Amino acid sequence: GLHQNPIAACEKCGQWERAWVLLRNMREVHDLPPNVLSYSSLIKALARGRQWNHAIAIAGEAQRSRLVLSPSSFEIAIKSCAFVYNYNDGPAYAVKDPWRWAVALVDEMRSQGVKPSQAAYRAALTALVRAPLPQRLAESTRIWGLSRLDEVAPDAFSLSLAVAALAKAGDTGAAIEALSSQIGAVAGEGPRGTAAFNAALAALASEAKPKQCLELIDSMRLCGLSPDEDSYNNLIRSHFRAGNAAGALETFGAMQSQHGVRPDACTINIVTGGVIDAYGGRAAGELVIGALLQFESLDRSRNHGRGASFPDDPFVAALRAGARAKSW
């Protein structure tokens, strides 16, 4: 009891260094095993001090001591896993691969009969974004399944992460079902809600399903969300992959004129490649020049960092030069 209240006091005052020393003194100086209150208070103090690696490590230490942390302490530890951006540098106490700890802590909570909160599941899915792709897809899908089993309603961000993981794992049906069953989580949520729909649209586009893409875009509007350039890019891509170049070009034309969404560099890449594939060689010249001319009028700063660029095809390079000269 001598040290437990001071650790809690340090947590409330934001003095994580003192809390850390007090817990160490309990074990190493006074030979007293820290209890749940001691660990929980230190984890909270470390999180307040943005000492994410230390918070994760202390949660692991409590686990090894077979202590059941409070739900709030579990949640803070899982959030710490999501906040760690540098896995290998930093203090000697640094934790490698925090995403592993995130999923382990979720499993530990459930094994102790503690239902993870929406924030805990969201933090676990966020931590998994930095996992290697195979583990990210497998564990994200599993964590999403656990949240559904626990009947924990997701927020828009969690749902977008789950839908993206399901889609990239090749389970388009599960991605669409996840979005449809939790559509209330994204209604009116702006960019985060749009991101969830775009993840599902990407899955449909990869399977060449323009009709379903269009239906999903209509559903976005009914949810109070505005389709963006990524939404239309996926719709255009799905048309091309379905062999409907005319539908793709119609969508491209209506994208800005009717819906007020300006094409980006990725849009032009999709249209350029799709038109050349559909119509072949120089016969596609005028159509592609129109697309390139539209690209030349775009604000290039909007595309900075997106990684989009024109194909390296010499014919496309010639078209681009012709577009700048406004001649063919």
Secondary structure: helix percent: 55-70%
Segments where pLDDT lies below 50 for 5+ residues? Answer: 86-93, 298-328
What general form does the structure show?
Answer: elongated
| Helix/strand order | HHHHHHHHHHHHHHHHH
* Rg estimate, integer Å: 26 Å
Annotation field: number of helices = 17
Distance between the termini: 85 Å
- What is the average per-residue confidence, as pLDDT, rounded to a whole number? 80
Largest sheet: none
β-strand number: 0
- Sheet-strand content, in percent, reads under 5%
Multimer state: single chain
Q: State the secondary-structure class.
A: mainly alpha
Main features:
328 residues; mainly alpha; 67% helix; elongated; disordered C terminus
In words, what does this structure look like?
The protein is an all-alpha fold and 328 residues long. The protein contains 17 helices and no strands. The chain has helices spanning 4-13, 16-28, 36-48, 52-64, 71-83, 98-111, 118-128, 133-149, 156-168, 172-181, 191-206, 210-222, 229-241, 245-257, 265-279, 285-296, 314-325. Residues 86-93 and 298-328 have low confidence and may be disordered.
Summarize this structure briefly.
The chain is mostly helical. Helix content is 67%, strand content 0%. It has 17 helices and no strands.
